Amino acid sequence: MSTAFLEISNGVAVPRDKIPHLDFDRFRREALDIVENGGKVVHFFAYQEGDVVKLSAVLRQDHLLTAGCDAPDTYPALSSQCEPFHMFERELAEQFGISPEGHPWLKMVRYHPNYMDRVDVFGNNYDDDIPGNYDYYSVEGPEIHEVAVGPVHAGVIEPGHFRFNCIGERVLNLEIQLGYQHRGIETLIPGAAAKRLPIIIESVAGDTTVGHSLCMAQAMEALSSTQPDQGAHTIRTIALELERLQNHVGDLGALSGDVAFLPPMNYCGRMRGDFLNMSLLLCGNRFSKGLIRPGGVRFTLDDEVRTTLAQRITEITPQVKHVIELLFSTSSVRSRFENCGSVSQEDAEHLGLVGPAGRACGMAYDVRRCFPTEGYGELDIPENAEDSGDVYARAKVRADEVLQSIDLIQSLLTAPVKTECPEPEERAMAPDAFVVTLNEAWRGEVAHCVLTDAAGNLLRYKIKDPSFHNWNGLSMSLRNTGISDFPLNNKSFNLSYCGFDL
Amino acid sequence: MIKSLMFWVLAIFLAPFFSALILKVKAFFGGKKGPPLLINYYTLVKLFKKGSVYSTSTTFVFKLGPMVSLSSAVTVLLFLPLAGQAPVFSFNGDLLFILYLLGLGRFFTIAAAMDTASPFEGMGAAREAYFPIICEATLFMILILFYVLTGELRLAAYFTGSQPFGLWQMAGSPMLFVVIALFIILLAENSRVPVDDPATHLELTMIHEVMVLDHSGPDFGFIELGSFCKLFFYASIIAQLIMPFESGYLALNLCLFTAGLVVVYLAVGIMESVMARYRMDRVPKFLLTSFALAFFATVITLEFIK
After folding, report:
1. Which residues of A touch B199 (CB under 8 A)?
2. Three-state DSSP state, A53
3. Contacts B279 to A, Cβ<8 Å
4. How distant is the Cα of B95 from the closest Cα of chain A, in angstroms?
């Protein structure tokens, strides 16, 4: 298939003048063509250069494809033909006041005025409190009732509003409205000092510190033509897998807790702590903050730490296996997990689900396998696809990944790891360059896209957390599911509010 | 009479202690130390020291809920024979009175929940109103059985008497069905796993807990104490069914009774530790099991006793 889009590689900078700049109609046609033929949207965003606003899209099939165009003020929405653009177009409308006409679900994403001082697409007065003019989907009928949950929740979790339209115990539709955590990260970055950048990125989503940091570091390295050494790649891979373990193990425990099956909940809670402490051993921070910097890592892995780490992993492995087996072999747990909150593969394709949530619906996509970075090129990552799309499938994918991550870390720890920690320095970045970096964090594909201007300064830093795709998956999983199963489904996705809200 | 009254007071005082046994068992299965055995007393004292907060949108019905639910639970204990002792009150047909006294407590809890106009509490109220219907059918089936066996409609008559093995002597093995059916009722009526999860913080999955979310301070203390008493009531009945021995000595009777209670509470704790709770739509099936058991116990007994 021939396309006007340029084929690019993950984490390789390209000069921006090499990227095809199409006229809008052609851009729209080609983009729709790619996505309708099985492509997925990685990024679709706008940026301002001088007085001109331009659009850029990064799509993926077997390769990453990109192209750009000048942004029109209004345009016929891509979502009306092709659902995977849905969230991206809403974001675009909110950030740059570009109105997608005929968009089937044009509501704001995060509740903030657009960057261009244009007329607000949603007619909001941003002095008012959130949610503003948010037109909740509603169902009418004598037996319909609405349940509003949040934004303040029981337990210590992030804020988000959930609106259920129910008939009795059955949920007809769930609408999720977020934006309460919006901090303006994307606008903060271009003006920030280079050494502040890693710190900002680490707090995009606290539980995905490594995932986002890796994307940032790889992008900065690509733009400044720096090549971290092999040891740094290994340590970063270990850190990413540890992060996966921490979250997957913690969530398996929480899933167990949500169905009131206590033993795995308690054991997983403890083991999550053990895995967090491994990150502590690695870099002095349980969430791996301060580990990854452009050019390498800030902490070496000497043989003493390496053997301690290997020992701890060896010690905990049988416990992990035992608890996972207990969880999945308990019939009462299985009866709760199975056939609960199913998302069909067709819906998942339309929503563009990524990560374990996508793999649970039979989409085997895994950045570690499809666009490997760091040490993953030499590692063997299995496909992990389940086909039932229910809570069981999501839990199973995570449990499988836990065991695989343990193996990966063990294999990486067998040989000595040598690395030089880079000096923090200002590196000159290539002018007029474009780079997109993808990594498989524990929730799925994290993608950062960085553009530089003619002077080599950051022009646009676009961040996409996997939650940006997956929140709609949660909404879909609740269709025709009992409302009392919402917490279970929510936990099986366990999406990030702050990663979405940026 | 004085002795019976003392037993009644003792029952109210000890109810929170036994509930803590469940927490200990659950902690044991979870590999934890668990809270101290007196935790429920600390909680009650803490709650009674606090003030209550009332939403401006609620009426007196909201304040009535905790009071009525506690008084109904405490009143019910007046009719409960303990360790072979005659209860404070007992009259012909008191069983019906007891059942509907508990129903009254539930009604006011539901009314108070509806009074808040919170969608969560409305949902919880709907569930709380639905499940006991099935429990009631089971209880009446058991009542029919007991009535046929003894010709009495007094709760006290079933557990105080000259027969050393109580109802077992008359009914035999079908009593096992009755014990299991009653245990299921206990789990459902006292919002235990696998019907409800008393430990969850997730409003959408709760049944009983969600209805009392808006109560605070002493009001919430009343509700807690009421639920301890209610659990104690059901547990005592089962304890006296599984330990039907009448030794003639008060001290020995008391020991046997306590042992029976401990067994029941431990069973609840173990049940909560080894299984997940049912999906909401499976709960009625679980409760219907208790009805089926009671029904067959009755049929078998009636057929063979003649």
Report:
1. 260
2. strand
3. 335-336, 340, 482, 484-485
4. 34
What average pLDDT does range B175-191 have in this prediction? 91
- Of the candidates A9, A71, A19, the one whose C-alpha atom is nearest the C-alpha of residue A42 is A9
Q: Which residues contact B103 (CB under 8 A, 6 or more apart)?
A: B132, B136
Residue at B301 is within a domain: yes
What is residue A318's predicted lDDT score, i.e. its pLDDT?
Answer: 94
pLDDT band at B305 (very low <50, low <70, confident <90, very high): low
Q: Enter the pTM of the model.
A: 0.90
- CB within 8 Å: B119 and A147: yes
Cα separation of B44 and A402, whole Å?
43
ipTM associated with this complex: 0.86
CB pair distance less than 8 Å for B120 and A147: yes
**Which residue from A155, A260, A270 is facing B193, i.e. has the nearest CB?**
A260
- Quote the CA–CA distance of A157 and A22 in Å, as a whole number: 44
Tokens of B226: 């009421």
Residue of A nearest to B206 (CA): A484
Q: What is the per-residue pLDDT across B235-255, written as a single tens digit (0 to 9) for each?
A: 999 998 888 877 778 888 889
pLDDT one-digit tens code per residue, A179-237: 888 998 998 998 888 888 999 999 999 899 999 999 999 999 999 888 888 889 999 99
DSSP B36-83: -TTHHHHHHHHHHHSPP---TT--HHHHHHHHHHHHHHHHHHHT---T
B180 assigned to some structural domain: yes
What ranges do the domains of chain A cover? 6-130, 192-462
Q: Which CATH class is domain A192-462?
A: mainly alpha
Would you call A147 helix, strand, or coil by DSSP?
A: strand
Closest-CA residue to A461 (of A106, A198, A158, A98): A198
Q: What's the token pair of residue A188?
A: 């903060």
Q: How far is the first Cα of chain B from the last one, in angstroms, to the nearest whole number?
A: 38
Interface of A with B (CB under 8 A): 145-149, 154-155, 169, 256-263, 265-267, 270, 330, 332-333, 335-336, 340, 482-488
Q: Give the Cβ contact number of residue A285 at 10 Å.
A: 15
Q: How many domains does chain B have?
A: 1
Residue A447 CA neighbour count, 13 Å, CB half: 27
In a domain? residue B30: no
